[in-house]
């Protein structure tokens, strides 16, 4: 079945006859085009005026263009593409292809080969190997220690040459592989077999810096010192660190003081000094001690003191709303029970110290900056959220410790691009929405040229925000 197509170029409309047919070998619809002539207006009369331009041979395919092209251009603009080439050499096309696939689709790797047939990625990364077997071999390769060290050295040198502030946290990744790194440990869903992914994020740029995969049965507080030593070997100069309570131990506090790292962390209630600090600080609920954080009003009193023999600042915080909520829960469940004297003492202790939070820092922090400083660590929680929802991080389905590290490396690279792009978008535009709009920009593939179709206003706006230029054509 044939139809007439008018295509505007300059001030004229070029007219083609388009015929659809079924390709028995490829088992899919194809089309051929025949040049008929040109017209002055769309839908108007046409006439043939000479030889058909060589660039307008019958089109071979129509591919999704905007999404992978934008990702690749962002990688070039920030210099990540060169870091990948310098680190992984002949595998760079495969890595970029898979990164585009993870960001755009976030689906199982086994469908990548089908996806790439309909995406411009197969032209942007011609050396990419995308069969399931090839991807498995690549993931295994990316897990090699010497390759990862080479990448992180190149990456740190390019992106973090100066003293860096760290956000440090970890997340559990459920896994069923038969490996020593997979072990029973605490997760958000209880005790399960899992691998722990520890991530370091730059406080200013919010880009991931480094990751480690550690056994699910290894506690957070025992991983910090090794991690700091490793990144020092890779050339990262750590100036400061913001850590969750899981990393707050006497040994880690003393280590960070020794390394002159300007830290902020939350003191867990399991430390005996928690209650002593509250008693010694004598925080009063007064206007002088009040501070506003978002919609919350809290009371804060900071005090310089020696903790474990080192000078630190303790920031004792009382959240009245949380105290009221906690006290309601404690007392509501206690009225119908009979308590021993020991139980009553413990109950009164819970009531007395409910609603309190203590932050420790190496340097002085002004009252109004205490909570905002600590809660910058929410950026790393968002990164884990992106990884799990957009990059198919859960659950891990690889089959060896080396493959775990290789797969996390692939996710890590995708995260760099994902976060960079997300930070450039206008408020209200999510990455999902941006990728759908970009995917709407198509390209027609000819023997010797790729013709990019006209972008709409939404795509133009995205290109401007991402600081990229959408071309009208590319060479094949």
TrEMBL record:
The chain crosses the membrane at residues 404-421. It comes from the Bacteria. SUPFAM superfamilies: Ribonuclease H-like. One of its GO terms (biological process) is DNA transposition. Keywords: Membrane, Transmembrane, Transmembrane helix. One of its GO terms (molecular function) is DNA binding. Residues 163-417 form the Transposase IS4-like domain. PANTHER family: PTHR34614, TRANSPOSASE IS4-LIKE DOMAIN-CONTAINING PROTEIN. This is Transposase DDE domain protein.
């Amino acid at each position: 079945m044939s139809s007439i197509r008018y295509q505007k170029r300059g001030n004229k409309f070029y007219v083609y006859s388009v015929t659809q047919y079924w390709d028995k070998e490829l088992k899919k619809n194809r089309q051929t085009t025949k040049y008929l002539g040109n017209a002055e207006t769309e839908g108007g009369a046409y006439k043939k005026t000479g030889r058909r331009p060589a660039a307008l041979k019958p089109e071979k395919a129509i591919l999704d263009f905007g999404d992978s092209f934008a990702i690749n251009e962002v990688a070039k603009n920030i210099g990540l593409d060169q870091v990948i080439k310098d680190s992984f050499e002949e595998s760079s096309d495969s890595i970029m292809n898979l990164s585009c696939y993870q960001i755009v689709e976030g689906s199982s790797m086994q469908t990548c080969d089908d996806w790439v047939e309909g995406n411009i990625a197969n032209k942007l990364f011609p050396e990419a190997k995308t069969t399931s077997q090839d991807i498995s071999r690549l993931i295994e390769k990316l897990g090699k220690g010497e390759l990862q060290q080479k990448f992180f050295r190149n990456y740190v040198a390019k992106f973090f040459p100066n003293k860096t502030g760290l956000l440090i946290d970890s997340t559990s990744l459920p896994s069923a592989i038969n490996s020593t790194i997979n072990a029973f440990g605490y997760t958000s869903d209880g005790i399960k077999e899992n691998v722990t992914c520890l991530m370091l994020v730059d406080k200013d740029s919010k880009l991931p810096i480094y990751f480690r995969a550690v056994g699910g049965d290894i506690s957070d507080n025992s991983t910090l010192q090794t991690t700091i030593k490793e990144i020092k070997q890779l050339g990262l100069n750590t100036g400061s660190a913001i850590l969750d309570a899981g990393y707050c131990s006497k040994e880690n506090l003393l280590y960070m003081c020794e390394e002159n790292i300007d830290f902020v962390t939350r003191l867990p209630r399991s430390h005996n000094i928690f209650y002593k600090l509250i008693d010694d600080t004598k925080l009063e609920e007064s206007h002088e001690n009040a501070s506003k954080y978002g919609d919350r009003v809290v009371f804060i009193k900071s005090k310089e003191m020696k903790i474990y023999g080192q000078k630190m600042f303790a920031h004792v915080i009382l959240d009245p709303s949380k105290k009221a909520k906690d006290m309601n829960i404690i007392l509501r469940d206690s009225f119908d029970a009979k308590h021993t004297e020991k139980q009553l003492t413990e109950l009164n202790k819970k009531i007395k110290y409910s609603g309190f939070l203590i932050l420790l820092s190496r340097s002085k922090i002004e009252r109004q900056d205490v909570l905002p400083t600590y809660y910058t660590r929410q950026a790393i929680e968002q990164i884990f959220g992106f990884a799990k929802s957009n990059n198919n991080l859960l659950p891990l389905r690889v089959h060896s410790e080396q493959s775990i590290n290789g797969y996390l490396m692939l996710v890590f690279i995708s995260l760099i691009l994902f976060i960079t792009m997300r930070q450039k978008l206008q408020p209200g535009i999510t990455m999902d929405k941006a990728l759908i709009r970009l995917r709407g920009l198509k390209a027609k593939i000819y023997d010797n040229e790729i013709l990019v179709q006209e972008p709409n206003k939404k795509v133009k706006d995205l290109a401007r925000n991402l600081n990229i230029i959408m071309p009208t054509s590319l060479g094949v």
